[in-house]
Write a structure and sequence with these properties.
Elements (H helix, E strand, L loop, with lengths): L4 E2 L1 E6 L10 E3 L5 E5 L15 E5 L2 E4 L3 H8 L1 H7 L5 E7 L5 H5 L11 H14 L4 E13 L2 E4 L15 E5 L2 E5 L4 E3 L2 H13 L3 E4 L2 E5 L2 E12 L6 E11 L6 H4 L4 H24 L12 H5 L9 E8 L6 H15 L2 E2 L5 E3 L1 H25 L12 H16 L10 H29 L8 H10 L44 H6 L28 H14 L8 H4 L11 H10 L3 H52 L2 E3 L2 E3 L2 H58 L2 H7 L22 H12 L7 H28 L1
Parallel strand pairs: 2-6, 2-17, 7-16, 7-17
Antiparallel strand pairs: 1-18, 3-4, 4-5, 8-9, 8-12, 8-15, 10-11, 13-14, 15-16, 16-19, 20-21
Helix pairs in contact: 4-5, 5-22, 7-9, 11-12, 13-19, 15-18, 15-19, 17-19, 18-19, 21-22
């Protein structure tokens, strides 16, 4: 583990024209800040009110630029994260004091960007400077709003919303958020796009102290994983950087919050109070319990607060006299945070695949050393490789000759040979046991005493007493195994003995139970629509799942594709829909039509198999009824002829016993076939869902294609082409919506004015424009849909 170190705490004063110079003083070391308050004369002559405070922190940032703030606070933390140390940077303070500006900055201006985009930029710059390592970057964006967890990146198309609420989970690796999406970013521009996407989803509100007040706590996390490009290096390091933008504490009398904003302020103040309690407990060395679980904020930051992490706190305060009480409260929090210690350490892990390769290489070297040692010791040629089939067969022969007495001893060569000798002893013993058992089975009928169903049937048949002793006939030497002959019954003449045959095998029984019939009892049993079935009989079901994804992933051709530009001229009168539908299935809808036909053929095949299974079940049911009738007849015949008892147990003849076993086997077949029928019905239900989905998709795509090709005027389609992401099928025929100035033109103008001043800002502005284009498109699509409904 690493050495313990204290949390670094900085204070940043919000610039203002009304700075309280007489009340707030800075010392020359640029680390101390003094606060002076005038005594309240209304308290009388005897006034013990405290008027002076002094706070010593790690740095005071007054009238500091964003560049200086990042260099002072975050650059070292981000740099160490590339070496395997976790890092956390947290902004705390009163509402409107500049926390979000410090953390995120102003996205409209590249120079005013905050700690978060600068950290992303530094990470990718340092990756370029380390060509000896393969470093992957992933990001996530969490929001805690009114003690509820939200994923700010869930609006991305490949993530999608979920009904399962996110939860905070702890394990041996630490604390993580179950349900939070983590996104791989291979370049700087992608990371900025994710940042801007999350920023647009944050919840803000307006009150008297801040018109864009953050109403939630947000945690942007950068996950790093660095593997050495050297194959022999099996270690790799992981780290994460938590960038925390806390919602500001509010005094309701000053902010004037009402309604929903008042409720949000209550949750914010409550969570910040719990955070302060956790900080006080961490700073007290005598405390054993730290109340991390009082709220979602402290629970999510458990690893960062006093854990394996480089922790930095930025306290944002006002410089005005009217806000001096809140400034004092924030500075007290920073002082308490400086008492907290963390224990940062490098997060090293081992690559299992590389470890295996290194061990294989080491094993080969050790074998070479053993060969050299054997040759120097004048030992015969010894092999240390696993034995092949010929060597194993030779050892098996030696063991058999040793047991027969034809071989006096077995020569010992090495440890592997000794292990194989013992293994062959086990093999020979097992083979002898199987031979003895097969000999007994040929001569007698063996019943497993652990099979309670068979034992119960035998006892009911009178072949075994309650103590498990078999009832047989004396053979002159001992009490033999088998069935008492019918001649042994009192008052009956001797008859020829019937041979006691073994019951037929399971395979032969199953083959003989496939005759056709009809189902009666099966109709009352159905399968739940939500039942999950595991398909393991063939590989077709895997194809069905892939086909399901293929259906959902098929996208129609865009309206401005080259294929549409080369299509023949539009006829004067639209063709009939049946004729156009056949043309559509052969051209643009050929792929979805192919999948539709394949799914339908699979559905028909499953229905055929279900019909065959039903016929087999009915055949087995009829055979069960016949067997029951025969068994009842045998019982009635036995009752008429007289029953033979031995020690209170009923003795039955061989034919009745075989009928009992046959009935048991038929019931087993019945249950197996019925389970197969349930599985097939679930498969049929799933295939029917795929067929319906394909049919709906095919008809929908045909309607869009038919409108584009024959209904919508060509001039309307030409007007829509500059916005290629909006398909003509979504647009009403008599409406053309103007999208205003092209975003690409605005971006080109922006590049000409901004890039000469900041050459590194290309990724930043690219991501910004892409995010604006996406949200502009979404707004336009919503307006088009509302207009279409009207």
């Amino acid at each position: 583990m690493g050495t313990r170190k204290k949390v670094h705490a900085f204070v940043r004063i919000k610039p203002t024209d009304d700075f309280a110079h007489e009340m707030i003083k800075f010392r020359d070391d640029n680390k101390s800040i003094d606060i002076h308050l005038k005594k309240d004369t209304r308290r009388g002559v005897v006034n013990n009110q405290q008027t002076d405070w002094s706070f010593k922190l790690d740095g005071v940032l007054h009238d500091a630029s964003q560049d200086l703030v990042y260099e002072t606070i975050a650059k070292h933390v981000v740099s160490q994260a590339l070496d395997g140390y976790n890092g956390t940077i947290m902004c705390y303070g009163q509402t409107g004091a500049g926390k979000t500006y410090t953390m995120t900055g102003a996205t409209e201006n590249y120079k005013h960007r905050g700690i978060l985009p600068r950290a992303l930029q530094q990470v990718f710059r340092m990756i370029e400077e380390r060509p000896t390592h393969a470093i992957t970057v992933r990001v996530s964006y969490l929001e805690i709003y009114n003690e509820t967890l939200f994923d700010l990146l869930s609006t991305l198309p490949y993530v999608g919303p979920t009904d399962t609420p996110m939860t905070i989970v702890e394990n041996s690796q630490g604390v993580f958020i179950k349900g939070l999406s983590v996104h791989l970013t291979s370049q700087e521009e992608d990371a900025f796009s994710l940042l801007f996407e999350g920023e647009t989803n944050r919840i803000i509100a307006s009150h008297t102290m801040n018109k864009n007040s953050s109403r939630s706590h947000c945690i942007f996390t950068i996950y790093l994983e660095a593997h050495s490009r050297t194959l022999s290096d099996e270690k790799y390091i992981t780290s994460k950087i938590n960038l925390v933008d806390l919602a500001g504490s509010e005094r309701l009398g000053k902010s004037g919050s009402e309604g929903r904003v008042l409720k949000e302020a209550t949750y914010i103040n409550k969570s910040l109070s719990f955070l302060e309690q956790a900080i006080i407990a961490l700073g007290d060395q005598r405390r054993d319990h730290i109340p991390f679980r009082q709220c979602k904020l402290t629970h999510a930051l458990k690893d960062s607060l006093g854990g394996n992490c480089n922790m930095v706190l930025v306290t944002n305060v006002y410089g005005e006299a009217s806000q001096l009480e809140e400034t004092l409260s924030s500075l007290r929090f920073a002082s308490r945070m400086k008492l907290v210690t963390t224990e940062p350490a490098i997060n090293e892990k081992y690559d299992a695949e590389r470890m295996v390769k290194n061990l294989e290489k080491e094993l080969a070297l050790l074998k070479q050393e053993l060969a050299i040692h054997d040759s120097l010791a004048n030992r015969t040629l010894v092999t240390y490789d696993p034995m092949d089939e010929v060597q194993i067969a030779e050892i098996n022969s030696q063991v058999r000759r040793y047991l027969e007495g034809t071989l006096d001893e077995i020569d010992i060569i090495n440890l592997r040979q000794i292990q194989e000798v013992f293994n062959q002893f086990r093999v020979v013993l097992s083979q002898q046991e199987q031979e003895v058992e097969s000999t007994l089975r040929r001569k007698y009928t063996l019943i497993d005493k652990n099979d309670f169903a068979a034992m119960s049937a035998v006892q009911k048949a009178g072949l075994m007493d309650a103590d498990g002793h078999l009832v047989g006939e004396p053979d002159g030497q001992s009490f033999g195994l088998g069935i008492a002959p019918f001649s042994a019954k009192p008052g009956k003449k001797s008859k020829s003995k019937k041979a006691f045959k073994e019951p037929p095998s399971a395979s032969s029984r199953k083959e003989g139970a496939s005759s056709p019939g009809s189902v009666k009892d099966m109709e009352t049993l159905s399968i739940s629509k939500t039942q999950l079935v595991t398909y393991a009989k063939d590989g077709e079901v895997k194809d069905m799942l892939l086909r399901d994804r293929e259906i959902s992933s098929i996208e129609p051709l865009p309206s401005d594709s080259p294929k549409e530009d080369l299509r023949p001229p539009r006829p004067s009168t639209p063709p009939s829909k049946p004729v156009a539908f056949e043309e559509f299935k052969n051209e643009r809808g050929s792929e979805i039509n192919r999948i539709f036909k394949e799914n339908k053929s699979i559905l028909n095949e499953r229905r055929r198999r279900a019909s065959e299974t039903i016929q087999r079940i009915n055949a087995i049911k009829r055979e069960i009824d016949v067997t029951k009738e025969a068994l009842n007849f045998q019982k009635s015949l036995r009752e008429k002829q007289g029953e033979y008892e031995n020690k209170g147990l009923m003795i039955i003849d061989e034919e009745e016993f075989l009928l009992i076993l046959k009935l048991k086997d038929l019931k087993k077949q019945y249950r197996s076939e019925y389970q197969d029928l349930r599985d097939l019905r679930a498969e049929i239900q799933y295939c029917q869902h795929l067929v319906d989905q394909c049919r709906h998709r095919l008809l929908t795509e045909f309607d869009i294609w038919y409108n584009e090709s024959f209904i919508i005027p060509e001039d309307t389609q030409v007007a829509l082409k500059p916005c290629g992401s909006i398909r003509p099928g979504m647009v009403p025929v008599n409406r053309i919506v103007s999208l205003g100035e092209d975003d690409q033109d605005r971006f080109s103008q922006l590049q000409q004015t901004v890039l000469p001043e900041g050459p590194d800002s290309v990724s930043f502005y690219n991501a910004k424009v892409k995010t604006e284009q996406k949200h502009s498109y979404l707004k336009t699509a919503v307006s088009l849909q509302s207009a279409h409904r009207k």
